[in-house]
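Here is one chain, start to finish.
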Amino acid sequence: MQADLGDLQLFVLVARARGFREAARLSGASASSLSEAIRRLEALLGVRLFHRTTRSVVPTEAGERLLERLAPALDEVEAALDVVNGFRDRPAGTLKLNVPISAARLVLPAIVPPFLAAYPDISLEIVAEDSFVDLVASGCDAGIRYDERLEQDMIAVPIGPRTQRYATAAAPSYLDRFGRPEHPRDLLSHRCLRGRFASGAMTVWEFEREGEFIRVEPTGPLITRVSASDLTVEAAIAGLGIVALFEEWLRPQFDSGALEPVLQPWWPTFPGPFLYYSGRRLVPAPLRAFLDFVKAAGSGA
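Its structure:
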């Protein structure tokens, strides 16, 4: 009995993702091709590997046992193949990163071009989303997240600016019409443009000044997914309301005068993001090269 290695890899992907649809999204393959691979594997082994319902795909007891033994073995296969990279003049292979939208816009543009120029044999794939994912299940080598969202068993390396601020802003035309807030609570009577995370949770606006912390949940005419923040900025420029976003994101609008800072003394400062990866497996050569590059860039900053 000899199973196809590709089918075994797809089994692990579906088991970790807990569903064909999510596994298809993470892998780029179609859900039907994943389902067919699992059917082939089940026919070969003569056992059912998943309980399938319209809402979920959960490993059977046999599936769980296979996953326990197979996942580490496949990780070892990948690590063994990657050892060959150590004998090359330059590392090669694919590096897949899962990052928030803000990092793709504000952190990576200064890092990716020089990194790829230094390592032309590495192919970099960026998955930008604001939902927190399991790196192993998603097939990503590493990710970028902020400290409060890092899992404890992850190794974290600073990347990008070490301090950032969250800013609020509005078009001068809006402020001339509705007035300029002097305190965060004034926002409760203003038209605010808010974001919603992929989880469904609304963004909460937080402010800080001289040890005083205030959380505000304003209302307004527009709610967008966090991934559509550019639309929110354009709505603010059009005078529809007040926007809250990373200061670096809004800096071009401040410089041009399209937006005016609001409540600037209250803008909260927070630590910058981290590049993180699992400490439970050997570091592949492309990721090791990226880690070294990020550390060198940070030391030179």
